[in-house]
Amino acid sequence: MIRDSNCPELASAESLEQFVRDWEQDRIPGEEWTHAAHVAMAAYYLQTLSKEEALAAVRKGIWAYATARGVPNEQLGRGYHETLTVFWVELCDRYLRACGKQGIDAARAVVDAFANQSKLHKEYYSGDVVMSAEAKAKWVEPDLRALP
To answer: Environment class of residue 7 by beta-carbon count within 10 Å: exposed (0-12), middle (13-18) or buried (19+)?
Structure first.
C-alpha cells in the first residue's frame, strides 16, 4: 500500500510499474487506493508518456477504477473530478521537472512531497469553485492563487 516512499511498491521501477498495472486491472483494493497511490501513478505515467498522454491515461484509469468500484462518476462529490485530476497531474509534472531526479527516485520524491497533501487544492480553490459541477466536468483555473 503506497503511503510514502518507503513502501514496497516504490522499491524499484518494476514494482511501481506492477502496482500501476495491478491498478489498471482493478486488482488494488479501495483502501489501498490512497492519495499517495494517486500521485505515484501520476509520476509513473508522467515519466513513461508525454504529458498529454499521461493526463489521458490518468483520466481513463481513475474513471474506470471508480466505475469498477461502483462509484458514480457523474454524481457531484463522488468519482472522477476533472479539475482535481488536472491540478494534481500538473503539480506532479512541475515537481518532476524541478526535482532533478528520474525514474523510481523521482516517483519517490513526488510521493514524499505530496503523500500527505491531499487537501492542497484548498490553497488554490475556494470550496464553492472546486465543488461545482463545472469543476467536476472540466478544468477550472484556480481562483485563490495560481499554480506554482
So the answer is: buried
pLDDT in tens, 118-142: 999 999 999 889 999 999 999 999 9
Q: What per-residue string of b and e applies to 98-126 under the rule 16 or more CB within 10 Å gives b?
A: eeeeeebebbbbbbbbbbeeeeebeebbe
pTM of full prediction above 0.90: yes
Element containing residue 108 per DSSP (H, E): helix 103-114
Return the number of other C-beta atoms located less than 10 Å from residue 67's C-beta.
14
Q: Is residue 148 part of a domain?
A: no
| Residue 3 domain-assigned (yes or no) | no
Give the pLDDT band (50/70/90) at residue 60.
very high
- Number of folded domains that form the chain: 1
Quick one: which H or E segment has residue 55? helix 51-68
Q: Which domain holds residue 130?
A: 8-137
Cα-only R_g, the chain: 15
Task: State the pLDDT at residue 7.
Answer: 85
143 belongs to a structural domain: no
